[in-house]
Design brief:
With 218 residues, the protein is an alpha/beta fold. The protein is built from 9 helices and 8 strands. The strands form 2 sheets. It has a 5-stranded parallel beta sheet with strand order 2-3-1-4-8, with helices on both faces. A 3-stranded antiparallel beta sheet has the order 6-5-7. Bound molecules: adenosine-5'-diphosphate and adenosine monophosphate.
Amino acid sequence: MNLILLGPPGAGKGTQAKAISDRCNVPHISTGDMFREIIKTGGDLAKQLKSYMDKGELVPDKLVLEVVEQVLTAGKGKQGFLLDGFPRTMPQADGLGKALSKSGRKIDGVFCFSVPDETVVERLSGRRTCRGCGVNFHVKYMPPKKDGVCDKCGKELYQRDDDKEATIRNRLAVYHSQTADLIEYYRKKGVLIEIEADKAPEKVAAEVDSRLDALMKG
Ligand code: ADP
Ligand code: AMP
């Protein structure tokens, strides 16, 4: 299976990703997570990535495509994938299509999560991320058992630099101007699966699950 999670930042893509990747037995590949890992190691590329991400701007297509193509053709995505946060622009979608067709592969499904902008602001300003395993919590909607501590690995929870209100608003504007067109692009290809994501996590999970049933039955 070659799957994509599409939707604004904060729509709940990462929250639903593990269940989908477990069920379809494909790796969850988040470009945002990959970039945050690169930033931890330091160096020139790290500095460049951080400068875009801290402002809520997109990393340039050329740089993103170089990193992703390697992962999809020679890395952990070569047998199938669940992409999260990629593609985010038309040139990225185009680059992905070309890279896949070289090896006779195609996209099987694009889960598009929709939520209103104000929900995004509320979700992202309350998001807390684990420094150890990267799992996300929410101070109100998905609180950890112990304040500031990850339920899964016990490491510290932190607030991402780009999860501050001004940056969140910029990321939303970037989503509407540069990414939202991909919804039509994938609808025309007949692979779009629309998910109403403005409801409780279990309800979103149930909707995703039933849409996956249909997709797997072909
Ligand atoms: P994305 O990966 O799309 O950027 P996340 O999965 O990280 O979004 O979710 C953003 C924030 O919203 C997190 O703090 C998460 O705990 C919370 N969240 C995710 N899904 C829901 C939901 N259905 N209802 C309420 N909060 C949610
Ligand atoms: P995310 O973790 O998906 O919220 O992404 C965090 C940030 O990483 C974004 O605001 C961008 O700066 C950068 N980023 C992640 N994926 C991409 C992508 N496909 N194209 C451009 N920038 C990206």
